[in-house]
Amino acid sequence: MRRWALVYLVAVIILGTSACLDIPTATPAPTVTPSASLQSPTRTARPTPTPNAEPEPQTATVSRAVVNVRDEPGGAVIGSVEAGDVVTVLSCRGDYCEIEPQAEWDVEHAFVFRGCLDGYEGGRGCEAR
User: Please, are residues 100 and 90 in contact by the beta-carbon 8 Å criterion?
Assistant: First the structure.
C-alpha cells in the first residue's frame, strides 16, 4: 500500500506543479484563403511587330543654331530650323532623318542631318550640312 501511496503522492506533485507551469500548447496555423486581389496578374500578349511596319513618329529638338532642311538626304536646301525647335521625326536612314515638312517649304519630304537632333546623334556631330 505504501507503494500506491507513494505513486499517488508523486502524481499529485507532478500534476500540481504542471498546473503552475506555463506549458505551451500547439495551436493550429491560420487558414489562408486566396482572394482575388492576391492572385497573380494576368499577362497580356504583346503585339508582334511586323517587319515592314512604319515606326511611330517621334519628336526631337534641334540642337544647333540654324540647321538646313533639304528636299532629300544631302539634296537641295529648302528651308531651315533653329535651335530649340521641336520637329516630328518620321524616320531615319543613314546620316539623315525625315521630318514632317512645314507648309512654307511646299514639299512632300524634308530631311535634316541626324546629328543635329537631340536623341538622334548616334555619334555624329551637328556639322553644317
Answer: yes
